[in-house]
Amino acid sequence: MPEKTITVLLVEDDAEVRRRFETTINQDPMMKVVGFASTKHEAQQLIETLDFEVMVIDLGLPDGSGIDLIRLANRLHPSSDIMVITVYGDEQHVVSSIEAGATGYILKEADSEDITGQIRLLRGGGSPVSPSVARSVLRALQNHPTGNGIVPDAEPSPLSARETEILHLLAKGMSFNEIGEILTISPHTVTAHIKKIYRKLQVHSRGEAVYEASQMGLLHN
């Protein structure tokens, strides 16, 4: 059975960067750019009308923040992945993007050269994240371990021991296949556990699950 082409929506206001990304993605025989936008308004229209599996988005758009678009895309396309490629690596932008539904976050120039590899990792269940971005997330969790001052273990965890183990590996950015290898279970079993985690935490993406779990104090064991 032939591999399915990965469809990509590009949201980037820098024309040179957008052309470079578009050319690189379309040169891959298993990927295709199905739309591109340079403003928040244009992107909103495409998100509402196009079908796509990956949205690659910059946060600094001329008419508004890309975070609102992440939230919209996550709501209208819950099975799609959203990868932020931006110059903003500070804690506020990173955490806000993950909370909105981003499943990958890499910085321009330093980490965006292999964009097709990052997209493949994303669709394979991984979370491409720049090292400095990962540090921002860790700092956020350390500074705000529960987000509301509640003692982390004040409430019993809704997750089983195995689900908690998988959640910790997800938080480290590991793919479903990598998690299966570490725990010596099949990727299908990993997927089944992750669906249970999403249902119990009432979330729809990997980023949301990690964020919600951190708010509940489930990632501090």
Automatic annotation (TrEMBL):
Keywords: DNA-binding, Phosphoprotein, Transcription, Transcription regulation. One of its GO terms (biological process) is phosphorelay signal transduction system. Coiled coil: none annotated. InterPro entries: CheY-like_superfamily, NreC/VraR/RcsB-like_REC, Sig_transdc_resp-reg_C-effctor, Sig_transdc_resp-reg_receiver, Tscrpt_reg_LuxR_C, WalR-like. GO terms for molecular function: DNA binding. Residues 7-123 form the Response regulatory domain. The modification 4-aspartylphosphate is found at residue 58. PANTHER family: NITRATE_NITRITE RESPONSE REGULATOR PROTEIN NARP (PTHR43214:SF41), TWO-COMPONENT RESPONSE REGULATOR (PTHR43214). This is DNA-binding response regulator. It comes from Mesosutterella multiformis.
